[in-house]
């Protein structure tokens, strides 16, 4: 079973509103991520990028919202890479965030690093295994604000 991040034990980054900014900066946040899991109803161009980067693993991210319906939305397990992030950032300006994903997760092997249900509309949760300084650098790059989920 893949780990579920508890908000009270995470950094929260609020104010991330665009996929382009997010994917341009995400390597700052999780340079050692091995997997990215996405769920949603992607535009065919985005679907093609994700399919090309698929890692063949099962989608094992936790369901965190009632909108997490595998029978209605597509699920992708992909290899996390700076090349994929750059390609998603380049495609993002011509697609709405909803055309990219609605839920997004990053893992280092089986360890949850980032969890983002309702991506681009609620705060991003980041494991405290990621140093606050790293999270602050990322937040600065995307125009976001860091807070401690325990507060």
Q: Would you mind describing this structure in some detail?
A:
With 151 residues, the chain is of the alpha+beta class. The protein has a domain at 19-122. The protein has four helices and seven strands; from the N terminus they run E-H-E-H-E-H-E-E-E-H-E. The chain has a seven-stranded antiparallel sheet with strand order 3-2-4-5-6-1-7, covered by helices on one side. Helix 2 runs antiparallel to helix 3 (82-91). It starts with 9 loop residues before the first strand and ends with a strand. The model has no long low-confidence stretch (mean pLDDT 89).
Short summary:
The protein is of the alpha+beta class. 27% of the residues lie in helices and 25% in strands.
Helix content: 25-40%
Strand order of the largest sheet: 3-2-4-5-6-1-7
- The overall strand count is 7
Strand content: 25-35%
Compute the average pLDDT.
89
Tell me, briefly, the overall form.
Answer: globular
Q: Over all CA atoms, what is the radius of gyration?
A: 14 Å
Alpha-carbon distance between the two ends: 28 Å
Unreliably modeled segments: none
Biggest beta sheet summary: 7 strands, antiparallel
- Total number of helices: 4
Primary descriptors:
151 residues; alpha+beta; seven-stranded antiparallel sheet; 4 helices; 25% strand; globular
